């Protein structure tokens, strides 16, 4: 862990108010792992648009019913509808001290709306931290990934292979590779990621609420630098 990250260690306590945090990064960069660490350390939820939409549909809320009807009829779902669901979720008590944003905002209009909404309700502004790892390293993480179908243990043929090639150390079952964990699929996902994320990154960079951390290190070191970046951004 860097000296700067160590100096910011107190910010990992639950007395720290992180506010809304947007973690950015390409597929395989480790956003999910870092989000879970921060959620537990700060006692805040992860706000996923997918989860919000599914919850509204399951509860048959007016917004969920409208969303389901639009999808069923083949129509595009307008940002206004997704924004309304997000606004409702952010108003709940567990979001009072902060939350980790997952999958939102994906576009510049969504980022603009979120800024305006938070200003309107008197909330802290979003701070964004991007985890960066080189393309070759990410490709190895994705294409080398293998999973046990029984115990769900995850291996990587390049960095953390099983003792016996293709066999789970625990269950002895044949390891499986996800259908989309191929170089071709990864290249497609990276194109979509850059096309969608570039405007959002530039938005927060222009506002002075964006930092980059090196994601190609041990998990604890990355966590420390993310915490330090958020603490710095909150002091601005």
TrEMBL record:
<keyword id="KW-0067">ATP-binding</keyword>
<comment type="subunit">
    <text>Monomer.</text>
</comment>
<dbReference type="Pfam" id="PF00406">
    <property type="entry name" value="ADK"/>
</dbReference>
<keyword id="KW-0545">Nucleotide biosynthesis</keyword>
<feature type="binding site">
    <location>
        <position position="217"/>
    </location>
    <ligand>
        <name>ATP</name>
    </ligand>
</feature>
<feature type="region of interest" description="NMP">
    <location>
        <begin position="48"/>
        <end position="77"/>
    </location>
</feature>
<dbReference type="GO" id="GO:0044209">
    <property type="term" value="P:AMP salvage"/>
</dbReference>
<feature type="binding site">
    <location>
        <position position="178"/>
    </location>
    <ligand>
        <name>AMP</name>
    </ligand>
</feature>
<dbReference type="InterPro" id="IPR000850">
    <property type="entry name" value="Adenylat/UMP-CMP_kin"/>
</dbReference>
<feature type="binding site">
    <location>
        <begin position="154"/>
        <end position="155"/>
    </location>
    <ligand>
        <name>ATP</name>
    </ligand>
</feature>
<dbReference type="InterPro" id="IPR007862">
    <property type="entry name" value="Adenylate_kinase_lid-dom"/>
</dbReference>
<feature type="binding site">
    <location>
        <begin position="75"/>
        <end position="77"/>
    </location>
    <ligand>
        <name>AMP</name>
    </ligand>
</feature>
<comment type="similarity">
    <text>Belongs to the adenylate kinase family.</text>
</comment>
<dbReference type="GO" id="GO:0005737">
    <property type="term" value="C:cytoplasm"/>
</dbReference>
<comment type="function">
    <text>Catalyzes the reversible transfer of the terminal phosphate group between ATP and AMP. Plays an important role in cellular energy homeostasis and in adenine nucleotide metabolism.</text>
</comment>
<keyword id="KW-0808">Transferase</keyword>
<dbReference type="InterPro" id="IPR033690">
    <property type="entry name" value="Adenylat_kinase_CS"/>
</dbReference>
<feature type="binding site">
    <location>
        <position position="49"/>
    </location>
    <ligand>
        <name>AMP</name>
    </ligand>
</feature>
<protein>
    <recommendedName>
        <fullName>Adenylate kinase</fullName>
        <ecNumber>2.7.4.3</ecNumber>
    </recommendedName>
</protein>
<dbReference type="GO" id="GO:0005524">
    <property type="term" value="F:ATP binding"/>
</dbReference>
<dbReference type="InterPro" id="IPR027417">
    <property type="entry name" value="P-loop_NTPase"/>
</dbReference>
<feature type="region of interest" description="LID">
    <location>
        <begin position="144"/>
        <end position="181"/>
    </location>
</feature>
<comment type="pathway">
    <text>Purine metabolism; AMP biosynthesis via salvage pathway; AMP from ADP: step 1/1.</text>
</comment>
<dbReference type="InterPro" id="IPR006259">
    <property type="entry name" value="Adenyl_kin_sub"/>
</dbReference>
<feature type="binding site">
    <location>
        <begin position="28"/>
        <end position="33"/>
    </location>
    <ligand>
        <name>ATP</name>
    </ligand>
</feature>
<dbReference type="Pfam" id="PF05191">
    <property type="entry name" value="ADK_lid"/>
</dbReference>
<feature type="binding site">
    <location>
        <position position="110"/>
    </location>
    <ligand>
        <name>AMP</name>
    </ligand>
</feature>
<feature type="domain" description="Adenylate kinase active site lid">
    <location>
        <begin position="145"/>
        <end position="180"/>
    </location>
</feature>
<feature type="binding site">
    <location>
        <position position="145"/>
    </location>
    <ligand>
        <name>ATP</name>
    </ligand>
</feature>
<feature type="binding site">
    <location>
        <begin position="103"/>
        <end position="106"/>
    </location>
    <ligand>
        <name>AMP</name>
    </ligand>
</feature>
<feature type="binding site">
    <location>
        <position position="189"/>
    </location>
    <ligand>
        <name>AMP</name>
    </ligand>
</feature>
<dbReference type="GO" id="GO:0004017">
    <property type="term" value="F:AMP kinase activity"/>
</dbReference>
<keyword id="KW-0418">Kinase</keyword>
<feature type="binding site">
    <location>
        <position position="54"/>
    </location>
    <ligand>
        <name>AMP</name>
    </ligand>
</feature>
<keyword id="KW-0547">Nucleotide-binding</keyword>
<keyword id="KW-0963">Cytoplasm</keyword>
């Amino acid at each position: 862990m860097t000296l700067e990250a160590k100096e910011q260690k107190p910010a990992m306590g639950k007395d720290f108010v992180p506010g809304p945090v947007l973690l950015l990064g390409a597929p395989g960069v480790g956003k999910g792992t870092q989000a879970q660490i921060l959620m537990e350390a700060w006692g805040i939820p992860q706000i996923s648009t997918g989860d919000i939409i599914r919850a509204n549909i399951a509860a048959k809320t007016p917004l969920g019913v409208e969303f389901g009807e639009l999808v069923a009829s083949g129509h595009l779902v307008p940002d206004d509808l997704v924004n309304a669901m997000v606004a409702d979720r952010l108003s709940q008590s567990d979001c009072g001290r902060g939350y980790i944003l997952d999958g939102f905002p994906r576009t510049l209009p969504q980022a603009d709306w979120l800024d305006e909404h938070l200003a309107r309700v008197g909330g802290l502004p979003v701070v964004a931290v991007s985890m960066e790892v080189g393309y070759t390293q990410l490709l190895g993480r994705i294409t080398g990934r293998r999973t046990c179908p029984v115990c769900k243990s995850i291996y990587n043929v390049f960095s953390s292979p099983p003792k016996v090639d293709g066999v789970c150390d625990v269950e002895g079952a044949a390891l499986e590779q996800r259908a989309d964990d191929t170089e071709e699929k990864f290249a497609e996902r990276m194109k979509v990621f850059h096309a969608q994320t570039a405007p959002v990154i530039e938005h927060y960079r222009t506002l002075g609420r964006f930092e980059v951390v090196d994601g190609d290190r041990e998990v604890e070191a990355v966590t420390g630098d993310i915490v330090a970046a958020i603490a710095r951004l909150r002091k601005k």
